[in-house]
Amino acid sequence: MKKIRVRFAPSPTGYLHVGSLRTVLYDYLFAKHNGGDFILRIEDTDKARYVEGSIENLVKILDFMGLEYSEGVFVDKDNKTFQKGDFGPYIQSERLDIYKKYIDELIKNDYAYYCFCSQERLGEMRKNQQLQKLAPMYDGKCRGLGKDEIQKLLDEKTPYVIRLKVSKEGFTEFDDLIYGKIKIENKTIDDQVLMKSDGFPTYHLASVVDDHLMEISHVTRAEEWLPSTPKHILLYKAFGWEIPQFAHFTLLLNPDKSKLSKRQGDVAVEDYLNKGYLKEALLNFVLLLGWNPKTEEEIFSLAEMIERFDLSGVNKTGAIFNTEKLDWLNGMYIRKMDVSELTKLCVPYLIEANLIEEKDTRYKIQDTNELIDFEYLKRVIALEQERMKKLSEIGESVKFIFSDKLDYEKELLIWKKMTAEDAKNNLQLIFDELSSFEENDFQSEKLQEVLNNLVEKNSLKRGEVLWPLRVALTGLKGSPGPFEVAEVLGKEKVLRRIKEGIVKI
């Protein structure tokens, strides 16, 4: 059996789209599940779209996400690209001589031809086709040029492209591993440009030549390339090469069923990582955007993905990019994390929110100039671990811990049908009770026990005591429990904040 070899072949256009992340994940899982090779190739023949530094950025993201490949383009510790593997170069702009050799072969065997049509003529042709409601296709004007005429135009330095000469008779068919059998009338297939006027190949020629020479067994890519596949099959046949298997993945969609694009919000993987989504959650999320595990399971480690993934589980219908589901998944991963690891990830967001700054081996609270250590930060983060959906929320969520004074309306201290006087009296009861506490006894379990007794002893409702306390400590309507917050704040801050609440009322 032929060894499975799969490639991810992005264009270096600036960022990794989340749709491309799903493609590369499926490529990786398919290769790993079947003991095959996974390759990174860079398709940079469209020089107008090239963005400086994007190759290095792409490689770093794949590395960060844990999607290892066995050959292709890599980046060293000095941020320099290098290539590794037996089928290089793996950057298409370094393979121009190879493409020239094969384009000459196609012309020689009458499978391709020179086209000297100007951009003005092509524009007029397309305009007329639109008016007649015809599919936009090259009209074949240059297909019948004789050798002498071609040579004359070449001698005159007339700009040209090379087009595929498609036989307009019969059909081209193939079996897609996702969509099944597809059959296309050849008369509907365009004489596609294979080599541009600048000497660079188009995707159609370069991808076919590279996939063959790199012994790619399965061409996996987005469904937008599905209409181009018949052209690629005709090229394989023209060269007399074995045709690989094709699998086209559906597009990711916005909730309104439109294609997920930058115009409607964030689509770059970096955007989601910067927002505080964990890489594990993001991979898990894109896995389920188009793949059905055929069980009720939703949480998968990368090892479990490799074990379970199969192309037969990939759906034919477009997947809705639902950020609510991503938030839920991310929250699930956050809750499962070791609090030390979670705290390390949260520190940059606390610094960005101007709540703390690094001070040697410790941290300084910006608002109060207090010095705290990592252990204290762990206790702060633990307050929000069960509630957090993404890391970027942590600054706003725990701001009350690091604030010198809380800013809230006094009405917030009043629970349901209580009066302001009731809230004030209950805060005073709490203040008097906690004033006698030793600092070492300021622990959530002990605080809960004492304040529950206070509720019973004074024939109060829990909400009448705990709601004003929670608001006085946090200044928030929704927050972690008052006992846990009090333990983190410590006796001095708790009593001061309760006193401020009393004064506010």
Please describe what this structure looks like:
With 505 residues, this protein is an alpha/beta fold. It has four domains: 5-92 and 252-320, Rossmann fold (3-Layer(aba) Sandwich), CATH 3.40.50; 95-249, Rossmann fold (3-Layer(aba) Sandwich); 337-402, Helicase, Ruva Protein, domain 3; 410-504, Arc Repressor Mutant, subunit A. 43% of the residues lie in helices and 13% in strands. It is built from 20 helices and 16 strands. It has helices at 18-33, 54-65, 96-108, 119-131, 147-155, 203-213, 229-239, 269-274, 279-287, 302-308, 323-336, 339-352, 374-384, 394-397, 399-402, 420-435, 444-457, 462-474, 482-489, 491-504, and strands spanning 5-8, 37-40, 71-75, 81-84, 112-115, 161-164, 171-176, 180-185, 193-195, 218-222, 245-249, 252-253, 319-320, 356-359, 362-365, 371-372. The chain has a four-stranded mixed β-sheet. The chain has a three-stranded antiparallel β-sheet with strand order 5-6-9. Strands 14-15-16 form a three-stranded antiparallel β-sheet. Strand 14 and strand 15 (362-365) form a beta hairpin. The longest helix is centred in the N-terminal third of the chain and has 16 residues, at 18-33. The N and C termini lie far apart (80 Å).
